Structure formats: structure tokens, C-alpha cells
């Protein structure tokens, strides 16, 4: 799929990822990208987040590719359980938090429990770090396997956010490009 043929819905995680985050930078670089704004970034309601993402998908006029980070990855797994006929062609899923087993994950993520394990109804790529404080690499592989996602290990990259030194994240753009090459319009 060509980049010009899709709408990109950028889905930040808890706290809206913050300024300088690669998602906000990508939103400025991709002509057809929009950040999906949630009503409450800090005390998220799972049903509200999922409904907001579904509404953004419905309102898109072209095929959709989701670009999710952190808690938004778990929200995409919930969205995938509710979509029947969809224009979502793929999802780029980065740094999912292990909200079930990791005690360091913020309590505000608990409304998203349990994490869905059914395959996503669209192609996806999950990118995870072997030094993410919120998810072990083994759990990230488990999520990718359950969801039917291609898996890419990003190395020692922390939570793949500004705090771990990932502002523009050009390596991520290369991975995203590989996903786009696999997708059908």
C-alpha cells in the first residue's frame, strides 16, 4: 500500500505521549495522519478510548492504518474484538505495557484488563524493546503471537519514548515502511 492511499490514525498511550515523542513528530510528517484525541489521557476509560478509536476509523474516508504506542496498543487489541467489517488495513503496535503481570505499570491502566488474546482482524507489526520497564520481551512475544502480529525486537530501547531517547525514531519509520509494503489497499 502506498502512503498516499491511507489515513493514519496515531494513537498515543497514557498521558498523550508528550511533546517531542516520535508519534507527534510522525503526525507532522505524514500528510494523511491525525492524532486521535482521547477525552482523558491520564485517567482513561477503556470503553471511551475504544469508542473514540472506532469513531475515528468510521470517519476516515480511505483505508486506515493504526499507529499505536503503549496503552493504545492494548486499546487496539480491544478495538479488534469489536470490529466486524472494517477499513483498517493494518496496525503498527509499539511498546505494549504488560498491564496484567508488571507491577510497575500505572494503576490507571487497569480499566483495560484483561488483555484480549484473539487474533487481530488485520495485519500488524508489534515492536518491543528488551529493556522496556513496562513489558518483558517474552510477554511482548506472547502478545504478538496471540494477535497474529509480525514481531520486531528493537534492542535496548526502553519504552521507545522520549525518556528512552526516541524523539524522531528513524528506525521506527523503516519498520513502519516494511509494514506498509505488506498491506493491500
TrEMBL record:
Biological source species: Devosia limi DSM 17137
Record's protein name: Alpha/beta hydrolase
Lineage: Bacteria, Pseudomonadati, Pseudomonadota, Alphaproteobacteria, Hyphomicrobiales
Keywords of this entry: Hydrolase
TM helices/strands, residue ranges: none
Gene3D superfamilies according to UniProt: alpha/beta hydrolase
SUPFAM superfamilies found in the cross-reference section: alpha/beta-Hydrolases
GO molecular function annotation: hydrolase activity
